[in-house]
Amino acid sequence: MANSTQLKTKTPAEAAQRASMMAVIAPALGWLIPGAGHMIQKRWIRGILLFISIGTLFVLGLMMQGHIYKANGGDILDILGFIGDLGAGGMYIVTLAMNGGQGAIAFATADYGTKFMIVAGLLNFIAIADAYHIAIGKKQ
Amino acid sequence: MTIQLTHFSAAFVFALFASVVFGITHRETTRDMIRYGLYCFAMFMGGVLIAGWAMWLVRR
After folding, report:
1. What are the beta bridge partners of residue A67?
2. CB contact under 8 A, B2 and A64
């Protein structure tokens, strides 16, 4: 009887362990796939909206032939650009793997594309922080 | 596949998606999220229009 009751209800220690696990998993997943950190915590609409917003910005940046930064130790602006791009997580990795984001200096709007991709990554950093706050119970 | 957005449409798309993310991440309740998202969007677009007209005045 006692065992079946224990199986049904979580002890505070179990709940705390689950919360601490989620505090690691949600941001990691959110980095890999924008919005997934919210979706895994059952914030479906927020997660889908984040995925659409960040994903569309990144893809539009690619379609505008923006430049994607790689890891570098050179110019400070290049390093900052890399950090921004890195925030897009999975999309950044896939783009690098497909050798995309080469940039086209022939188009004036290609520079907008570069900024779109950096901002998509930076917005994803904010979304990751939000997913973490939900996981630790700081936000609903 | 490539696209070329105009300056205004690029600013509009940027403002729209950035406002959605700001609204979701910076407020607690759904109502506040929508209100803050709309506020951010208005500020982005207002800034674009003011900056555009300012540049037009400087150019003359």
Report:
1. A102
2. yes
The answer to whether the CB of A40 falls within 8 A of the CB of A29 is yes
Q: Evaluate whether A53 touches B17 at the Cβ level (below 8 Å).
A: yes
| Domain parsing of chain B, residue ranges | 8-59
Give the whole-angstrom CA distance, residue A122 versus residue A30: 13
User: Is A53 close to B20, i.e. CB distance below 8 A?
Assistant: yes
A33: nearest Cα among A51, A48, A57, A19: A51
Interface of A with B in 56-95 (CB under 8 A): 56-57, 60, 63-65
Asked if the ipTM is above 0.85, the reply is yes
Identify which of A52, A57, A126 has the shortest CB distance to residue B25.
A126
pLDDT of residue A15: 77
Q: Which residue of A has its CA nearest to B5?
A: A109
How near does any CA of chain A get to the CA of B2, in Å?
5
pTM, 2 dp: 0.89
Which mean pLDDT values do the consecutive 10-residue runs of chain A (140 residues) have? Answer: 53 81 95 97 96 97 92 88 95 94 78 94 97 93
